[in-house]
Each structure stands twice: as C-alpha cells, then as structure tokens.
Design a protein that fits this description.
The complex is a heterodimer of chains A (113) and B (110).
Chain A: E1 5-7, E2 10-13, E3 19-24, E4 31-38, E5 42-50, E6 53-57, E7 64-68, E8 74-78, E9 87-94, E10 103-104, E11 108-112
Parallel strand pairs in A: 2-11
Antiparallel strand pairs in A: 1-3, 3-8, 4-5, 4-9, 5-6, 7-8, 9-10, 9-11
Chain B: E1 4-7, E2 10-14, E3 19-25, E4 30-38, E5 45-50, E6 56-59, E7 62-66, E8 70-75, E9 84-92, E10 98-100, E11 104-109
Parallel strand pairs in B: 2-11
Antiparallel strand pairs in B: 1-3, 3-8, 4-5, 4-9, 6-7, 7-8, 9-10, 9-11
Classes of the chains: A mainly beta (113), B mainly beta (110).
C-alpha cells in the first residue's frame, strides 16, 4: 500500500458526460501528480500541483481540469468525455515539488461507452 | 526532446534464470532515474531511485545500476512472482515530472 488513495476504482460513463476523480496523497506529501495510462500510450503526465498551486502541465486536454484543495486532496475533472478518454488515471504524490520519490495510487479505471 | 527507451519490450525467463533489463535516456540534465514495478490493472510500485552514475541499489532479487547513458535492472534467480511490467522513468533537472519508458513485460515461468 503506497498510501495514495484514489476513488472511484472503476467508473463507466457515457460519451459527453463529466466525471470527477479524487485523490488523497500520502500523509505529509505536498505534491500531487496526475497521469493517464492507456493501452497504446503508456504513462503520460497530465498535471502537477504543489501545496494548492499548479506547478507543471503536461499533455492535459482542455476538456480536463484539476485542482488541489487546502487539505491537499486533489480532483481531476474530465468533461465532454469521448471514447478515447477510456484509460487508467493515476494519482501520485511526493513530499516536495522536485519529484523525489513519487508514489502512485492504485488508479481509477474510466470506461467511456 | 527528453526520451526514455526500455528494452526488451518483453522477456520470458525460466525460474532461476538471471537477466537484465535496460533503460536508456537522453543524457543531459538527468536528476534521477526511477524504477517501478507494475502488475496488471494496478498502480506502479516504487522500487528504486538512482541519482548518480555508478550508484547501485538492491532489493531482494533486484539490483539497479546507473551509468551516464543508461540504467540496468538486474534480476537474479527470478521467481514466478517477479512476473510484472518493469517501468523506468527519468526526472530531469528542468522539471518535476517523470518521463516514463514503455516498460519491459517480464514473465518468469516455473
């Protein structure tokens, strides 16, 4: 158990809908990262927050957004969902903003039908 | 462009047959090289971080090494439970995100 908690574990939704994925980082970790893993693309970095502020942005679509709250949990919002958004979404956390020792959660399986 | 390349894509071993997995990376500005193990449908499990050429770390049957151009994950006398996908990822000084390779899918047959 990495200490990073993600909910829900599985989610099935229809095209055009909006979903929210939630992440609680390890105790004491201030940085939260979101990654997407699909069958054909491997692990792709989406976005990073540190202590409530956005720190780095990767290949995140405009239909997706994220935030980190004062209690350090984070949410990833996915809207206007398309079939191609079906993937495993991972949250990860680390103690600092430099990415040293990043621990991953178990992921949220999103299936768009 | 920052790149991480892993080889082979897949590896089948017999139980007890030692081997090595390779991870090569763009040379400039590496701050750390990470190894993770991932089981199907699960999150990557942290194994090691290496920070400088010549550094080695061990955990049970696994040993990770780092040179100026690549990293190796040596698996000694593997067991079937070592079957998984092994991912390496690079952390560059220019940022805080990990760039992952495509992984090596390891299967150890009894």
């Amino acid at each position: 158990d990495s200490g990073v908690t993600q909910t829900p574990k599985h989610l099935i939704t229809a095209t055009g809908q909006r979903v929210t994925l939630r992440c609680s980082p390890r105790s004491g970790d201030l940085s939260v990262y979101w990654y997407q893993q699909s069958l054909d693309q491997g692990l792709q970095f989406l976005i990073q927050y540190y202590n409530g502020e956005e720190r780095a942005k990767g290949n995140i679509l405009e239909r997706f957004s994220a935030q980190q709250f004062p209690d350090l949990h984070s949410e990833l919002n996915l809207s206007s969902l398309e079939l191609g958004d079906s993937a495993l979404y991972f949250c990860a956390s680390s103690v600092d903003t430099y990415g040293n020792t990043i621990y991953f959660g178990e992921g949220s399986w999103l299936t768009v039908v | 462009e920052d790149q991480v390349t892993q080889s082979p894509e897949a590896l089948r071993l017999q139980e007890g047959e030692s081997s090595s997995l390779n991870c090569s990376y763009t040379v400039s500005g590496l701050r750390g090289l990470f190894w993770y193990r991932q089981d199907p449908g699960k999150g990557p499990e942290f194994l090691f971080t290496l920070y400088s050429a010549g550094e080695e770390k061990e955990k049970e049957r696994l040993k990770a090494t780092l040179t100026k151009k690549e990293s190796f994950l040596h698996i000694t006398a593997p067991k079937p439970e070592d079957s998984a996908t092994y991912l390496c990822a690079a952390l560059w000084a220019s940022g805080s995100r990990l760039t992952f390779g495509e992984g090596t899918q390891l299967t150890v047959n009894p």
